[in-house]
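STRUCTURE:
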């Protein structure tokens, strides 16, 4: 009753969530009135600009336009990447832009980043690449253009006073510009759980805003004027940095905190948080599907609401005493202990609230972040002050800027070393996997009930006498309830056998799982760049796979190994671990450059290498694998012919994984099949459905019920070939293709087979 806005915010969140569950596709799919041509022309007003850096290190300008002709649906903006030779307009100008339209892609695998949803949240309909300004006129927005130029000046000052890597981090931290950061550093911060320090949020506002306000008060400025100046400067700062959701929340809460005494009101953190939540959700309901938005509000809820409840009751109601040589030493030790307990309870409180965000968006939880934040956060205030000095006065007094820049360098170096230590061998990363929506709802309900119960019990505890054992039992009950809630959120039911054909475009990538055991057959693509980083590794994280018991390489072509090499690179940084590498045992002269590179890379990382040939077998849980190709020391001209072919059996379910087998390899497999006829339930069609691999005799020998084909959309080879599809249809095989259905999943449970495709 005392906080009606909180009730409104909760009710609004529930209504919006239910609405989005039924209408999310309508809000995220932009349907233009007419199809895009090779070169599109758009007239619109420039409302925002920012500089970006591409993978080649080239700097370009990104414009955000409000088109003269309103966009359909909830979309308002168009993003334009200017070509190097184009005129750069000012904010506020009306421009005629021409360029090639790039529509945002939807994910084709579980765990893959949803670009369309992300940009829909920002109300951006599509992107124009290599955009060129044909015409520009109209009134300029001098205020916004001045803020943009001021931001460029600040960034330039950071470049002058810091080295390249440090300057890029400080640009992200102080100005909200992450585009100049090295991808490795960005991933390091994200995987270590300290990515939040790069977001313009509450810490920035409290240091800068309160610093300005207190400075004004010290020079005896009137209260109203001090508040007005501080709030105005912070809103300008937020606008200069892009005004993301965390910045808006922090600036609004800061403003209300200063305004409350002037209006004769008491500042209430939950009311101000609720007001920010309501305003943002009214502006864009899709924020409920934005991880940054959820993290921003979740962190404040954790600190303000949950943290007070995590303090051990036995320390709260039973004084903690220790014997020391003198009172001063006792007092210092108590302060240190209280500080440590306070920091730990803060991290645990934020973890409890934000854990569903991790299991819904990132699928891993950096356990090391709980400890890492204890050493990172205390230095943030110092680092920010140093950064502000470097970007404001550093260019005028260059020696002063460089001197302070040295301090920033050592702090950032300390952060980097600490992050790397927390990621050693991936030991402090919990591959929790994906939680279903029902699990998240139940978890939120349990935590909410838990909070209500604890506040009720705390009211009862106050003023009553309890023994230490009573309080210890109450603390134990809290721990058990938290563990139970986390178990509900992270519990997974695994089928006896699961086969996932990952959509890697023109390539292969198959994950076979049984219980906690996982084997990856191939992993590569020629149509998708960084397929390991953007498709395979996110899929493994979604499945909660932190280690591969085996990585089987059928042959050395790029479309089968490029992503696997990226997994190895990730493993070197503490990512997904490969326990063993299995290669086809062929003659030395048939081993190409890629084969040798795989061997060398595995040896560098300490991955045991095993070699397999016809007749050899191995087991994974209750699943057996028999190799049908290649022959030992096989000599071939091309890599496809020596492809590893595996016959898998689990109860009555059988499968044949064929790589890109052809020519001698196909003949070898058919010979083995004639000797011991092996009908198969599931066939991984060889070579992406090429007509030269899956002939009539082979299909007569195998008679597959299910045929899975991995190929890229509109690939230049025309895979799968019409002839192959006709042969498969003639024997009654059900055909599933990644180019049409995305990731394909086959589950086997108690002799029952369940197949589903991601896009359907």
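SEQUENCE:
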């Amino acid at each position: 009753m005392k906080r009606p806005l909180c009730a409104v915010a909760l009710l609004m969140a529930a209504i919006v969530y239910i609405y989005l569950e039924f209408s999310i596709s309508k809000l995220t799919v932009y349907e233009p009135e007419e199809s895009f041509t090779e070169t599109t022309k758009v007239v619109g007003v420039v409302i925002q600009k920012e500089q970006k850096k591409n993978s080649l290190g080239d700097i370009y300008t990104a414009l955000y336009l409000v088109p003269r002709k309103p966009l359909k649906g909830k979309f308002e903006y168009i993003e334009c990447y200017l070509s190097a030779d184009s005129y750069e307009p000012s904010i506020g100008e009306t421009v005629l832009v021409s360029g090639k339209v790039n529509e945002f892609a939807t994910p084709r695998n579980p765990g893959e980043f949803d670009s369309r949803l992300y940009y829909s949240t920002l109300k951006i309909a599509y992107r124009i690449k290599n955009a060129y300004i044909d015409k520009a006129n109209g009134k300029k927005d001098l205020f916004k253009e001045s803020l943009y130029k001021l931001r460029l000046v600040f960034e330039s000052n950071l470049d002058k006073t810091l080295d390249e890597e440090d300057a890029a981090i400080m640009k992200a931290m102080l100005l909200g510009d992450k585009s100049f950061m090295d991808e490795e550093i960005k991933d390091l911060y994200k995987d270590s759980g300290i990515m939040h320090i790069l977001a313009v949020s509450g810490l920035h506002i409290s240091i800068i805003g309160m610093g300005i306000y207190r400075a004004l008060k010290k020079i005896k400025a009137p209260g109203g004027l001090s508040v007005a100046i501080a709030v105005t400067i912070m809103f300008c700062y937020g606008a200069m940095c892009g005004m993301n959701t965390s910045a808006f929340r922090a600036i609004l809460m800061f403003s209300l905190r200063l305004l409350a005494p002037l209006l004769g009101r008491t500042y209430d953190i939950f009311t101000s948080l609720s007001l920010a939540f309501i305003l943002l959700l009214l502006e864009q309901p899709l924020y409920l599907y934005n991880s940054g938005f959820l993290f921003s509000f979740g962190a404040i809820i954790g600190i303000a609401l949950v943290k007070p409840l995590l303090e051990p009751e036995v320390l709260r109601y039973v004084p903690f005493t220790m014997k020391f040589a003198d009172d001063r030493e006792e007092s210092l030790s108590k302060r240190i202990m209280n500080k440590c307990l306070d920091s730990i309870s803060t991290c645990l409180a934020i973890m409890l609230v934000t854990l569903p965000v991790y299991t819904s968006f990132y699928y891993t939880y950096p356990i090391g972040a709980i400890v890492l934040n204890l050493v990172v956060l205390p230095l943030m205030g110092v680092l920010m002050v140093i950064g502000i000095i470097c970007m404001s006065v550093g260019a005028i007094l260059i020696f002063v800027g460089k001197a302070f820049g040295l301090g920033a360098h050592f702090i950032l170096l300390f952060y980097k070393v600490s992050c790397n230590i927390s990621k050693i061998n991936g030991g402090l990363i919990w591959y929790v996997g994906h939680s279903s929506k029902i699990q998240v709802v139940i978890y939120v309900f349990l935590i909410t009930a838990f909070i209500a119960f604890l506040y009720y019990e705390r009211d009862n505890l106050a003023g009553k006498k309890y023994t230490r054992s009573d309080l210890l039992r109450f603390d134990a009950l809290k721990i058990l309830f938290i563990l139970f809630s986390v178990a509900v959120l992270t519990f997974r039911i695994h089928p006896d056998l699961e086969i996932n054909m990952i959509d890697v475009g023109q390539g292969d990538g198959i994950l076979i799982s049984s219980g906690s055991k996982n084997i990856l057959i191939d992993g590569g693509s020629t149509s998708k760049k960084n397929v390991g980083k953007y498709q395979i590794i996110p899929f493994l994280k979604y499945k909660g796979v932190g280690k591969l018991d085996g990585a089987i390489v059928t042959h050395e072509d790029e479309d089968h190994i490029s992503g696997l090499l990226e997994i190895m690179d990730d493993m070197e940084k503490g990512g997904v671990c490969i326990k063993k590498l299995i290669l086809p045992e062929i003659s030395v002269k048939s081993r190409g450059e890629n084969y040798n590179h795989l061997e060398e890379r595995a040896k560098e990382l300490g991955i045991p290498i095993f070699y397999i040939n016809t007749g050899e077998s191995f087991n994974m849980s209750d699943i057996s694998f028999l190799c049908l190709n290649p022959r030992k020391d096989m000599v071939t001209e091309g890599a496809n012919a020596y492809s590893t072919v595996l016959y898998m059996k689990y109860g009555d379910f059988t499968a044949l994984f064929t790589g890109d087998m052809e020519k001698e390899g196909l003949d070898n497999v058919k010979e083995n099949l004639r000797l011991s006829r092996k009908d198969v339930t599931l066939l991984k069609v060889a070579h992406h459905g090429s007509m030269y691999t899956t002939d009539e005799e082979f299909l007569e020998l195998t008679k597959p019920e299910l045929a899975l084909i991995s190929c890229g959309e509109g690939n230049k080879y025309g895979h799968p070939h019409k002839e192959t599809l006709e042969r498969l249809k003639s024997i009654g095989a059900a055909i599933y293709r990644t180019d049409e259905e995305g990731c394909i999943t086959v589950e086997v449970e108690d002799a029952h087979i369940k197949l589903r495709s991601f896009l359907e």
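REMARK: Residues 320-327 have pLDDT under 50 and may be disordered.
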